[in-house]
Write a structure and sequence with these properties.
2 domains
């Protein structure tokens, strides 16, 4: 009887580990990509890309820091005017509406 209980506990423990691993994998894919733009006198003076950027874009925070124009080059050429207009409105403190923007 003890062997059967130990076997059931081991099986249950293995199932719990498997479920835990599956949820951890899902959580890893749900990482938020948060970035912050510091604006002074209507000018963007600094942009900080959070650690979630690597899972979304493939680029690290350091990549963006070393190459400030990287984010813009990632925008599909057909959408670059829209992005520039959104940036202009944001710098003016106006509401920026979500739009469908395509990354390369």
């Amino acid at each position: 009887m003890v062997n059967k209980e130990n076997s059931e506990q081991n099986s249950s423990s293995t199932i719990n580990m498997d479920v835990t691993n599956r949820y951890q994998n899902l959580i890893n894919f749900l990482t938020d990509y948060i970035y912050t733009v510091k604006i002074k006198d209507g000018i963007a003076i600094e942009t900080i890309h959070g650690p979630g950027c690597v899972s979304v874009t493939g680029y690290t925070s350091d990549d963006y820091k070393e190459d400030p124009a990287l984010w813009f080059r990632m925008v599909h050429t057909k959408d670059q005017e829209k992005v520039l207009e959104q940036a202009r409105l944001a710098l003016l403190g106006e509401e920026v509406k979500k739009d469908d923007i395509t990354n390369k």
